[in-house]
Amino acid sequence: MPDLSVSYMGLKLRNPLIVAASSLTGTAAKLKRCEEAGAGAVVLKSLFEEQIEVQTAQLEKEGDYGHPEAADYLRQFGLRLNQDQYLKLVKDAKASLSIPVIASLNGVSPRGWTAYAAKLAAAGADAIELNIALLASNYEHNAADIEGTYLKIVQAIRAQVKLPVAVKLGPYFTSLPQTAVALRRAGAAALVLFNRFYQLDFDIEKLTLAPGYHLSSPDEIHQSLRWIALLSSEVGCDLSASTGVHDGAGVVKMLLAGAKTVQLCSTLFLKGMGRLQECLKDLEAWMQRHGFAAIEDFRGKMSQEASPDPQLYERLQYIKVYVGLE
Ligand SMILES: Cc1cc2nc3c(=O)[nH]c(=O)nc-3n(C[C@H](O)[C@H](O)[C@H](O)COP(=O)(O)O)c2cc1C
Prior knowledge:
The longest helix has 29 residues, at about 70-95. The protein has helices at about 30-35, 50-60, 70-95, 115-120, 145-160, 175-185, 220-230, 250-255, 265-270, 275-290, 320-325; strands spanning about 5-10, 10-15, 15-20, 40-50, 100-105, 125-130, 165-170, 190-195, 200-205, 210, 240, 260-265. The protein starts with 5 loop residues before the first strand and ends with a helix. About 40% of the residues are buried. It has eleven helices and twelve strands. The protein has one domain (about 5-325): TIM Barrel. By secondary structure, it is α/β, with parallel strands linked by helices. The radius of gyration is 21 Å and the shape is globular. An eight-stranded parallel barrel has the order 3-4-5-6-7-8-11-12, surrounded by eight helices. Helix 2 (about 50-60) crosses helix 3 and helix 7 (about 220-230) packs parallel to helix 8 (about 250-255). Flavin mononucleotide (FMN) binds near residues 22 and 23.
């Protein structure tokens, strides 16, 4: 049998499949199910800085406290409320799982909330995944301001913990290679490429906003695949693939591109946790067919750097000769 074990941010995983942050990883019982189904590691659902602020604002609205210190107290209270539940999730997960448990924090500012990273470390988390997503919708902010905020958040978290920190990003950067290297220098041990964001839609009968479909399709693999292939050999930190991986072939592709681990989410919602075993079996069968005994024997074999035609990885426009449709 091939050896599927990998090292990710210095953690030893029995295989490269990680159950991504979502409601699939939101309770200790669900996390146990992930482990039993064969996951190499789990990323807990995120604790959101934004969500904490909303809850606190709600508390403030409900009472007339009329004093800034009272509001301050409430803010602390709101933080503690969520934080305590989340710390319990980390502790419960660590008590019952033997695979690595990665806590996930979502932040939009480098403010005081970053101190909670230390508590996650004390609760036993093996690593932290930082989910940072700043929508560039403000006309006053230029790209350097926005990217600077990403770096400050990572530095603030790194100042709190020695644990490995992964940064989960969306795909919208003008120069992703520069941002990726800057994040690594700021202390990121890994980058997760890419997050898939909440989709906005309109209800044209009610004239209201509506949520778009929340799960990915296998067609969405290409953006992450391209960027992992482009970055994996030079970025200097581990890469974890996310978005659009729905089967064993998708897992193989991401590893060939150079990913250390592959995160699954939508396919597990659609097909159930049994999908993990199917992906692992397909990965093993593929490795056997190709004579690979271990993941490192083929990881990155199809990265841009390993390719005799590196320029093909940078092709953005459709040209007759490549598409063959015209
Ligand atoms: C219902 C749902 C909840 C999610 N919650 C989180 C979350 O709390 N934190 C996070 O970083 N990503 C979250 N995600 C994004 C997933 O972790 C993943 O990156 C995304 O779904 C793309 O991967 P996929 O194509 O395998 O679904 C969520 C996704 C879904 C569908």
